[in-house]
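Q: Two folds, back to back.
A: First:
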Amino acid sequence: MTKETSPQSQPGVLPVFQSKDETRAYYNKIAKVYDLLAERSEQPMREVGLEKLAAGPGERILEIGFGTGHTLATLAQAVGPQGNVYGIDISESMVAMTAELLENEGLADRVRVQCGDAEHLPYDDASMDGVVMVFTLELFDTPVIPRVLAECRRVLRTGGRIVVVGISKEGKQGLMVKAFEWTHRHFPNLMDCRPIYVRRALESAGFRIEDAAIEHMWVPVEIVLGTNP
């Protein structure tokens, strides 16, 4: 993957060192144990993000990078039988696991999941009321982030909402962040993401910021709500 100098809106952000094929292989490999590795720390952050999104009955909501499917299940309950939820993820194993989860919970009829690349979303212009990404945007290399967010704006209707939950360069940058970044630099196969500036990325992409907070798990997390003006 070609590395480029970070734009001004993302100073000091490390590049992504793995290719998309390597990322896909990694998540295919860990899909069955992902929740054991991450769910306990990610769930509270995800819940805050979903509160900000406030999906409602009859809406059409897209999640990019849905992983093991917990957010999709919550969204499906929120939009009800008249709504639709869409999910796209790079990992075939995550898609298979999520499809099974949704079937078991009786929600498969209102959720459509597929493998795909967020740089080229397979959805019509202005077709979504909301887009959500939870610990996904920081997996994209810095030059790619604007392209992903441009696709989000394209598929969102005017006034549509976007919520991004991401590991952040904002907030207190202590030893844990330094250790995180050191591991990402030297062992990208184990730590494929890195802290980014979430709010700045959304602002640069043209979203209007409606709410932004910095929470903490073991590193700072930005939870940002934007709208498509």
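A: Second:
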Amino acid sequence: MQSNPSTSPSRARTALGLLLLAATLAAACGGSPAPGPSPQPGTYQYTAVGASDAVGVGASVPCFPFAECPDGTGYVPVIARRLATDTIKVALMNLGIPAAVLGPGLQQIGVSYGRTIPGNFLEQEMPFVPRDSTHVTIFAGGNDTNTIVAAVGGGAGGADPLGWVNTQIQAFRTDYAALISGIRSRAPKASIVVANLPNFAGMPFTAGYSLDRRRLAQHISVGFAIEAINRLADQGIPVVDMLCDPRSYLPSTYSSDGFHPSDAGYAYLADEMLQAFANPAGYRRPASSCAFMTIVPPL
């Protein structure tokens, strides 16, 4: 996924190093990665929009932001390798920024509650999607979920925290629509594939949370999927349904921090995204309901 509030020391050092590098490079490039060369005929331009998932934190071979990574085992380099053929080369623009959230509003909220959030998708990623992109993947919401959970723990919402949380879910929906609109405006010929979120109450890193905190994490992550992401299927955008896929809840899907995918988890995500690219009209729609939506009692 993206940024974990309770990583193991080794994973934390890796994630922190990638985060600091991303922030340094973003500052050096005026807040964004420098655009890569335009692809030549016979070339796919694959652009990844995401956070630490896009750079493969948790994988056996993660990738530094904005750097070549031909042997990476995260889903982005796996997709890039598998899109290539004997006659088609792949130009990759990986815009992933570790610890980024979707929009500037939640970024400001997170910073106000002491979280390190170096960027957001709308301002530091979407404006730099290459105009000749042919394939775009988006994986958003993990850091946003953790940020809202942390903010509620810090007192956000006052006497009506649930009402405040629901407002943030609707803001996420608005920001996601703006992200899609912006990408389509910049790269009108691109095929877009997105992934929703697993229910965070069923992920290994929340196993030690209190029941109330797990219920809150469930409410947000499931709300993001249902209210913002799954609706994109109605616009012809394939949605990889991690929420209702049993593989999203296998311990082997995750690295030692219980949050970022393992090589197996990244391979699962890459395989589903590639299937969606290959057959966007025939790719299965996200489920309207499943048992994984209520792993713990709802709020």
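Q: And?
A: The domain at 9-294 is CATH 3.40.50.1110 (Rossmann fold).
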